[in-house]
Amino acid sequence: MAYSGFSLEGRVALVTGAARGIGEALAVGLAEAGADVAVSDMASRIELARDTQARVEALGVRSSTHELDVLDVASISPAIDRIVEEYGQLDILINNAGIRIPRPALEVTEADWDATVDTNLKGLFFCAQAAARPMIEQGWGRIVNIGSQFSAVGSAGRAPYIASKHGVLGLTRALAAEWTPYGVTVNAIGPGPTETPGVLAAYNRTPEELQAEYADKMPLGRRMQPEELVGAAIFLASPASGATTGHLLLVDGGWTAL
Ligand code: NDP
Predict the structure, then answer these.
(1) CA-based, 20 to 30 A from 241: which of 81, 102, 107, 135?
(2) Which atom from ligand 1 is nearest to the alpha carbon of 223?
(3) Is the CB of residue 69 below 6 angstroms from any atom belonging to ligand 1?
């Protein structure tokens, strides 16, 4: 008999920033493991998010698309409550929405700082808070925060991003301490360089240039594809990870091993 600990059948997941990139891959990956998946992103990305919904539905599970801008804190709880009402439960939150504004520290503006930290850390916290309420009520939940290899190490040219991602690890530990006793585990995934539309847009370089730049910093020798994060997400979203909490699971091609 096959091991059933990784099955997400009967579970309902919400993925933020799921219109493209890592969020899209994780939404589809959770559906492949059997979960119903609510897809969300900002209004400007809603058509792309519907494409993710279509990919999820093609796998034979339920899906729907929701406008959820994590910078609009007042709108987060009502949006998550609507999803709970629609599906009758919420079991898994993939806290994925995030931005990067690479710039030398001496050139960082207050607007750069606020946009980065408010999206990657403040928005992530309030999504976790809103999702934890129904999870605590039902006594089971999985919150998976998307951090970075930069949750664990530093690098030049990305100070606000690195501060926000170290903050994601701190929050993961703090929330795990508070909510694990109620059956809600809180963990983080730390992806290394992954080929996504957001990265290509932020660095204004060709995929080949980025590949060459990262190859010697990763024992893996190449940037990753978003689908290579799916296994980690399924584990942390599944019953199999019930005793894993407050943990940063690095999936970074060995970046932090050097
Ligand atoms: P993408 O920019 O490709 O995708 C992110 C999605 O989130 C986009 O659809 C984006 O919309 C959306 N988003 C941005 N701001 C908000 C917001 N305020 N509310 C809701 N959605 C929003 O990024 P990636 O897939 O590369 O990154 C996903 C996550 O993974 C991020 O948290 C990132 O920090 C993390 N990560 C990525 C790595 C990589 O190398 N790709 C490495 C380590 C971590 P829009 O396109 O309009 O901005």
Answers:
(1) 81
(2) 40
(3) yes
